[in-house]
From TrEMBL:
Segments forming domain SpoVT-AbrB: 4-44
UniProt keyword list: DNA-binding
Entries under PANTHER family matching the protein: ANTITOXIN VAPB1
Keyword presence, Amino-acid biosynthesis: no
The protein's name: Type II toxin-antitoxin system VapB family antitoxin
Originating organism: Variovorax ginsengisoli
Family affiliation: Belongs to the VapB family.
Classification via InterPro entries: Anti_VapB2-like (IPR047976), SpoVT-AbrB_dom (IPR007159), SpoVT-AbrB_sf (IPR037914), VapB_TA_antitoxins (IPR051734)
Amino acid sequence: MTYARVFQSGNSQAVRLPKEFRFNAEQVEIFRQGNDVVLRERPVSAVTILDALVRMPAGFMAGGRGDGPPQERETF
């Protein structure tokens, strides 16, 4: 388990993240999930995603995904 230091920064509470938890972004999203507080890099915009799709080669996935048949599962 890794721990981080909590401290006051002006009127805000801050957390000093250890090196192995550094973000490669200027902004992060913060939200509560139950009793947990979650930080994650802000997702890229839809424009960025669509631009990436436009740059895909014409034959990308021309052969399909190659998925196997659906799994057989018990009903609830």
